[in-house]
Amino acid sequence: MRRTSSHGIAVVTSLLAAAGLTACSQEATSLAGCETSYTIGFSHPVGEAAAPKAIKRMAAEYAEEKGCIDFLLDNTTASNLESQRATVEGWITQKVDAILLFPVDPSAFTNLQSQAQEQGIAWLTYATPMEGEDGGVGFDSEQAGTIVADDMSAWIEEHHPDGGISAAVTTLKALTTITGRWEKPEAALKRLGVPVVSMQDCADQTCGLQIAEDALRENPDLRVFIGLNDDAALGAQKAFENAGLSAEDVYIAGSDGAPEALENIKDPGAGAFRTTAALEVLSLAHDIVDNSLAAITGDGETSSLTPAVLAKTGDDATIDELLAQLNG
Length: 328
Fold this sequence. Notes:
Number of helices: 11
Distance between the termini: 32 Å
Radius of gyration: 21 Å
Low-confidence stretches: 6-26
Strand content: 15-25%
Number of strands: 13
Mean pLDDT: 90
């Protein structure tokens, strides 16, 4: 069981080439004068996305601040399995002290996990736990789904107390570790007597737009859209705008706290996407370093779950701090 992260971030604060061994390292500056030093490799499969970029940057800065840590990053993008495997293979050959990765496909890394652990390398995961791991860093999807469900329920009770509306929810059922994102809102809608007329896998703006357009065509009373992530929500927002529905009558929520979504929520204009369950990127970054060190030394917690924070239109302070962290 992963613990809830306890870094106590001020803002609470969202989610995915080369076979080089050390695309980023602070070795020259952080290891000077150290009697003992540790080498940690962190691999994220979607290195081109804003949130992973921010998490990598903040984890590297935190490792440098703690000192005596050679923190390695890879260059994997677009969930390129070959790139990620090559990087991890290199880290094992290099005999780093810990590897923490968000595996593109966990089943493709079981042999490498065994090789690493046989050599005494701590094996930790990010977001997607693997059997036999030495620790990990994850998101609390149950909590994220709950805060969206609570906010959505309050909005429905205020704006549509007599019912007469329907809802759509997007999912990504292959990712069983984040089911709370859609199961909690779905359960709340059931309690409120709001029928869910569409429930499909979708994690980008194109399918978000298409699903919302189809649902609106078949269900003119559609007024609630819960996106698996912010991209699905942004796509759905266009569909509601194109349908000419007032944002005051529509509720759209997402998850992650991606920069485009936060900018949209801060200044939504006529759009109805005004809420997201944002990841605490700073807390995630610190846990990546701290949990790896704990797994290496045997001292401290090796696993954690980071909660999300509700970012809404009108809460500019939270949105601005989240954006500041993401943009560096």
